[in-house]
Amino acid sequence: MNPKPDEWFDVVNARDEVVGRETRRVVHATGLWHRAVHVLVFDRAGRVFLQKRSMKKDLSPGLWDSSCSGHLDAGEDYDAAAVRELGEEIGVRGTAGLERWFRLDACEETGWEFCWIYRLRHDGPFVLHPDEIDAGEWLERAELARRMAARPQDYCSSFTLIWQRVAREPA
């Protein structure tokens, strides 16, 4: 599951339409627009599960991020990628209740990724993939806001952008 530089991604235009395919290495080295998903998992109490990215990751190692996230493979759609990432990263196979929540346009904070953000209610337990995730933690919204304000450098820029929007919504 650790990134392979020869993975192929769809390259997209400003309307998120596929215009070509390129390797992960080229996409990231040149800032080509591509696609990703983020899933936020909330438990019955309203806490969100965050992952601490593995130090083996090529991007943002050791930073806190969405419950799970990942690139779309070439030819893959957003919904399939969200289901795949849930299984690969945190071992969630039953995805009943997984729903598209909102979309972010490609920008510097997302790493030039168009992102669909999903949400899922699930109480765990999770099986964390060691090549993907070093740790995981359930956090109440207020505690997460406090931690992000105190140490914003500990969080992926894409997650920070996502959480700014989520924080404005009622719990």
Structure description:
By secondary structure, the protein is α+β, with helices and mostly antiparallel strands. The protein has one domain (8-167): Nucleoside Triphosphate Pyrophosphohydrolase (Alpha-Beta Complex), CATH 3.90.79. The protein is 24% helix and 32% strand. Strands 3, 4, 5, 6, 7, 8 and 9 form a 7-stranded mixed sheet that branches. A two-stranded antiparallel ribbon has the order 1-2. A hairpin with a 5-residue loop joins strand 1 and strand 2 (18-23). The longest helix is centred in the middle third of the chain and has 13 residues, at 78-90. It is globular. The termini are far apart.
Notable traits:
single chain; 171 residues; alpha+beta; Nucleoside Triphosphate Pyrophosphohydrolase; 7-stranded mixed beta sheet; two-stranded antiparallel sheet; 4 helices; globular
Structure described in brief:
This protein is α+β, with helices and mostly antiparallel strands and 171 residues long. The protein has helices at residues 24-30, 78-90, 141-150, 157-167, and strands at residues 8-12, 18-23, 34-42, 48-53, 64-65, 68-71, 99-104, 113-121, 133-139. The strands form 2 sheets. Strands 3, 4, 5, 6, 7, 8 and 9 form a 7-stranded mixed sheet that branches. A two-stranded antiparallel ribbon has the order 1-2.
